[in-house]
Structure formats: structure tokens, C-alpha cells
């Protein structure tokens, strides 16, 4: 029998379900040099060949760079699909489906019209990626240290959720101005064709409010999305190495590890798209219209209206999320950053549960 206090703690946590993961492990952890604690409750140290210490300022800075490259490039690459998705959301009578949306756009604006909004997309999502991934690593370490090694392991999914939500709060503040400009360019015919035209026009009409009136709907959309993105990814990676990959992560080559990253990222992306789509529809309509509130838009769209464009968004977000995690992890490999394995139960917790000899 497990100690009663730990059993109660396990039952009280609906996310990590530690009762189902407490399995006897005869393997002995290899001796490691002193280092920081991983928020997921594994002991992380600087191994030979790593360019910096886990949790150092350099580590966080390079994680932020990875976020810039992963989010900025991928969102820019799918601008045509994003444009059609936004137009389906704000004008479903004209743009009836993905293929119809592409056809109408090319017929009216030419092939170049599919690239509308690429500049605010690149700038905005680069800044968002910097904050999203960089601050996620910061908050994961911070919250993990506050919880302690054993609790951080038992509550690791809750930890991922809290760290990603905190990071996205700041990431959306960085994204909001460019997102507002992007939607105006993409959905309001004749409003502006470039970011250089859109920004002064928006400021002249509504002042600074034009750039931040969509930040609350952005939080509604992006915080659940990011919580799902990070928590689902972390737990999917853990599950893949435990149940699918035929050998331990330590025996997998770097390319094999990146394949696991891509697969886990795509699975997480599908869930992200579904969770965040209603708020995404509100953001698209809100940034197109003047003087409307998020509540008014939500009431007008109704239940069916907020799900317009979901198929396009699943394709876009699934691919985006997989590529983002792949690029982000590749940046870590390139710069030789510490890449901790999936979390393992701390030795101290094993002893408390009687799982060690």
C-alpha cells in the first residue's frame, strides 16, 4: 500500500494521475553533477557538450530565440490559409469553404493577394514566440522550484498548465497590435494593403485602443490554446517514449528524437485548434468591426457561427504546432542547450513509496 497522504494527494490531482504512474523501477539513475531542478521534477544538470547550464540567463535567451524562429516563420508560411480562415469567419456568405475562399481571393486579388498581412504576422508572432517559449521555460523553472522536486513531479501537468498560461498572458500583449493590423488588412477590402498603411490609419481613427481592444479576446483564445499546446505536448512526448518508441530516449539519435517531437506537436495542435477556435472567431470579427465588444460579437455569431472555419484552422494549427515544436527543439539541438528527458520519479519519492530496494 502506498502511504495514505501520498495516495490522497494523487487522488486530489486530476491532471497528472500519479497513482497510475507509480510503477516499480529497478533502474538506477546515473550519477550527475550538481545543477538546477527541472520543473517537471527530474534532476537536470549540465552534461558534457552542453553550451550552458539549464535555467541560466543564456539558456532562457536562446529559448526565446527558438520561440522567435518557430512562431514567426511558421505563422508567416501559412498566411494564405490564415487569410482564407479569417475571411470565412467574418464573411461566410461570400467565402463558403476553404477551396471557395482561395478561389474567390485569387480571382479578386490575384495570387499576391494570398500574402496579405504577412508583415504584421511575422513581426507579431515573432514577438509572441519570444515571450511564449522564453517565459514558459522561466515559469516552469520558477514554479517547479516553488513546489519542490516531489510535488513538481506529482503535479507536473498542472505545472505545465500554470507555466504556459503565465507565459501566454505576456505573449498576447506583445502580439495584440500586430494581430489587429493583420485582421484589418486581410478582412477589410480597401482598408490597407500593407502594415505601413494600416498602422497610422488605425491610430488616427481610434488611438492606441485600436491596437489593444482585441487583447482580452486574444487571452480567451490564446491562453487555453497555449495551455493545451504545452501540457498536451509534454505529456504526449512522455507517453510516446513510454508506450510507442521501442527504446529509451537516451538511446535515440537526435533525428529520432526530433521525429517524436514533431508527432507530439501535431497531436497537441489538433486539440489546440478545437479548444481555442470559438475565441479565434470572436477576435477576427472584433478586429474587423468598430465599436463592437467581445460579448456583442459572441452573441451575434451564436453557437454555429463561432465554429466557422474550424477545418481550415485544424489543418493550419496542427501543422503549425508540429513545425513550431520541431523548429524549437532543433534550435536547442543546434545551440547545444540542455534537453532534459521525460520526467522520472525522484529517488526520494521512490523511497517514500517503497519502490526501491
UniProtKB/TrEMBL annotation:
Pfam families: Mito_carr. It catalyses: phosphate(in) + H(+)(in) = phosphate(out) + H(+)(out). Its main location: mitochondrion. Coiled coil: none annotated. SUPFAM superfamilies: Mitochondrial carrier. GO terms for molecular function: phosphate transmembrane transporter activity. GO terms for biological process: mitochondrial phosphate ion transmembrane transport. It is found in: Mitochondrion inner membrane. It comes from the Eukaryota. Keywords: Membrane, Mitochondrion, Mitochondrion inner membrane, Repeat, Transit peptide, Transmembrane, Transmembrane helix, Transport. InterPro entries: MCP_dom_sf (IPR023395), MCP_transmembrane (IPR018108), SLC25A3/Pic2/Mir1-like (IPR044677). PANTHER family: SOLUTE CARRIER FAMILY 25 (MITOCHONDRIAL CARRIER PHOSPHATE CARRIER), MEMBER 3, LIKE-RELATED-RELATED, SOLUTE CARRIER FAMILY 25 MEMBER 3. Belongs to the mitochondrial carrier (TC 2.A.29) family. This is Solute carrier family 25 member 3. It comes from Erpetoichthys calabaricus (Rope fish).
Amino acid at each position: 500500500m502506498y502511504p495514505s497522504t501520498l495516495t490522497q494527494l494523487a487522488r486530489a490531482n486530476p491532471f497528472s494521475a500519479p497513482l497510475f504512474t507509480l510503477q516499480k523501477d529497478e533502474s538506477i539513475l546515473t550519477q550527475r553533477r550538481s545543477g538546477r531542478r527541472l520543473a517537471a521534477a527530474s534532476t537536470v544538470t549540465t552534461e558534457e557538450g552542453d553550451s550552458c547550464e539549464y535555467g541560466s540567463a543564456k539558456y532562457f535567451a536562446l529559448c526565446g530565440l527558438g520561440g522567435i524562429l518557430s512562431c514567426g516563420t511558421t505563422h508567416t508560411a501559412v498566411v494564405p490559409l490564415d487569410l482564407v480562415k479569417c475571411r470565412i469567419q467574418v464573411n461566410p456568405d461570400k467565402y463558403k469553404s476553404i477551396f471557395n475562399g482561395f478561389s474567390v481571393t485569387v480571382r479578386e486579388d490575384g495570387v499576391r493577394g494570398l500574402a496579405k498581412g504577412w508583415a504584421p504576422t511575422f513581426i507579431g508572432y515573432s514577438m509572441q514566440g519570444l515571450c511564449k517559449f522564453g517565459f514558459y521555460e522561466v515559469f516552469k523553472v520558477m514554479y517547479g522550484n516553488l513546489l519542490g522536486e516531489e510535488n513538481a513531479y506529482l503535479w507536473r501537468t498542472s505545472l505545465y498548465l500554470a507555466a504556459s498560461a503565465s507565459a501566454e498572458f505576456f505573449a498576447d500583449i506583445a502580439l495584440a497590435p500586430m494581430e489587429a493590423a493583420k485582421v484589418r488588412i486581410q478582412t477589410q477590402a480597401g482598408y490597407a494593403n500593407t502594415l505601413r498603411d494600416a498602422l497610422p490609419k488605425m491610430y488616427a481613427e481610434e488611438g492606441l485602443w485600436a491596437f489593444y481592444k482585441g487583447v482580452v479576446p486574444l487571452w480567451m483564445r490564446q491562453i487555453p490554446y497555449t495551455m493545451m499546446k504545452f501540457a498536451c505536448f509534454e505529456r504526449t512526448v512522455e507517453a510516446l517514449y513510454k508506450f510507442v518508441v521501442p527504446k529509451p530516449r537516451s538511446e535515440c539519435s537526435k533525428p529520432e528524437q526530433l521525429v517524436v517531437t514533431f508527432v507530439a506537436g501535431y497531436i497537441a495542435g489538433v486539440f489546440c485548434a478545437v479548444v481555442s477556435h470559438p475565441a479565434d472567431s470572436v477576435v477576427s470579427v472584433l478586429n474587423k468591426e468598430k465599436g463592437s465588444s467581445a460579448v456583442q460579437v459572441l452573441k451575434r455569431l451564436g453557437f454555429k457561427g463561432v465554429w466557422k472555419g474550424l477545418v481550415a484552422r485544424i489543418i493550419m494549427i496542427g501543422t503549425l504546432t508540429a513545425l513550431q515544436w520541431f523548429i524549437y527543439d532543433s534550435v536547442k539541438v543546434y545551440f547545444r542547450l540542455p534537453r532534459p528527458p521525460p520526467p522520472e520519479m525522484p529517488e526520494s519519492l521512490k523511497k517514500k513509496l517503497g519502490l526501491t530496494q
